[in-house]
Amino acid sequence: MDIIDLIKDLINKTVMVAWLLFLLTWIIGWAIKGSPIPMGKTRRIGQGLIEDAIWGAFWVAIGTSVFWLIMYISSFLGSTYPQPPLPQLP
Amino acid sequence: MYFLLIAYYLSILTFYLGVLIYALPIPLTGLKKWAPRLLTDAFFIAILTLSLGTIINVADYIRTLIGGSWENFLLQTKTTIIFRTVIVFLFSIIGNLFSKFLPGINRLITLIINPILASLYSNMLMYSIATMIYKGVWLISSLGIVLMAIPFRIARNAGAFLFSFALVFYIALPLYPSFYRILIYSPSTPLEIPIIYGSIVNEFNQPITSGYIGFEINTNEYIGPLPLYSNNYMLLTTNTKLMSSLVTIYFDAAGHQFYTNISNVDLHNICIQNINREAYLNICRIDVMVRGLIAYSNGMALHIAPKPNNIIIDVFSKENIKMYIDTQIDTQLYVSLTNMYDVEEITIDNATLDSIDNLILYQWYWYNLMGRTYVIDISQGQHVIEIKMKYSNEMASEPSEIYIYNAIQQLFPTNNPLFTDIINEINRIIYIDLIASIMYLSILISITWGFSRLLGGSSRIRVFI
């Protein structure tokens, strides 16, 4: 198996797992936050989990766009950069 | 390209791994800290991967701004290596020649040759690193980026080192000649020691592998015989007359002095065009073509006039000579032999010539040897000529070494104070060769190390992100 295919496969699996984990964490986060335990610390943990999960979902959602942007900018830079001057022989 | 593709996909993988860690329902700060780190790493590597072309262009640009040129650098290193090799060759020849007369000289020569060899190694080191970087800058830098792109910063430092190694050496290695020029600077005026060498061929462009050459200076002073070394002559001279007067080079063999294409020529003018100033020794190549002579070996010379179309020598040994001649005009083949040889039989196209003694044209002295020249008339057309000989081992075939030693003494007097100056100058250059290359490489390595710390280190100051 080609190493690039291997990496692509890993990426696909990671994305899938990331989505599932997002749902899971979101649910667990709300569950902890909404649980009838009267302790501020527990609620804060729940809140943190929800926030992290939403950040993760956000990055997954825009990940492709970010990489496209990087590619676009670097190709733009690469093509506008002037060719180096020819060396002058002494 | 393949490595860059791998690096790009690895950076995407790193990104999604970061996302995955964000989404993990495990509220541990140590673990969660990895998430933003992996994200920024991924962006960093992606930018690096996609702009590698631009980065190398910028490196090219900076290098030309500073004044380095890969082509010049490689060419110069190559010529330096060739010249050092020539010097080693030359010194071993001198050692061989002088050892017959001055028993201690070989030790001195070995003392000189060893540092030259060491400098040859250091130049070879520079050259091999240079070709590796020049041909492999893309490969090495993309390999470095791949190593950097492996998730969780496993090989980040190694990758950063490789990447900065490629980049730093690509920019700075061609600047080595400027660095060398600073070190080689000497307050005294450079020595004018001409080393003259070149190949020797006959008029049919066939190499002449043995024999002697002589120099005539201003038509009144003659320095010779100087032996050839397998198709090359070579001489190191402190005799200033040789470079400042009109010189004729003769091929000195078997009682004859054959003219060459160097006749009444100011060698200085030829050398000025050929001298490589960067080598700091005036090594000058003058190729010589001998007129009339076909071949020489062990006191036997074959020469011919006028010049036929083509000659192929099949056998040229002490007992047998066989050759093919292709001529459109009537010509005469001359066979000059020292008295060591007795001709038994001469055949042209399988027809034996009778009364061989009548073919003797004249007799001659050649230093301490006596000899004679036979002439064979050749009509136009293609012919096979065979000569059978006997030889006696008691008689010498080459001139006595005393004459050679005298010639070398005239060319290069060892009691001349310049001799020690030359040795000193050569030693100085050689040691600077050694020191300069090692010093420069270590400077570049330290720059590389610093740069790799900047790119891949976990110190607080990191570039970009």
Notes on the protein architecture:
The complex is a heterodimer of chains A (90) and B (465). Chain A is built from two helices and no strands. By secondary structure, chain A is mainly alpha-helical. In chain A, α1 runs antiparallel to α2. By secondary structure, chain B is α+β, with helices and mostly antiparallel strands. Chain B has helices spanning 2-23, 29-32, 34-50, 52-66, 70-99, 105-149, 156-172, 176-184, 240-244, 267-274, 401-411, 417-456, and strands at residues 194-201, 212-217, 221-227, 232-236, 246-253, 256-259, 265-266, 282-285, 288-289, 293-297, 300-305, 310-316, 320-327, 331-338, 341-348, 351-352, 360-366, 369-378, 381-391. In chain B, the strands form four sheets. In chain B, strands 2, 3, 5, 6 and 7 form a five-stranded antiparallel sheet that branches. Chain B has a five-stranded antiparallel sheet with strand order 10-11-14-18-17, with no helix packed on it. In chain B, α3 (34-50) packs across α4 and α4 (52-66) packs parallel to α7 (156-172). The two termini of chain B are 25 Å apart. The model of chain B is unreliable at 461-465 (pLDDT under 50). Classes of the chains: A mainly alpha (90), B alpha+beta (465). Chains A and B meet through α1 and α2 of A and α1, α3 and α4 of B.
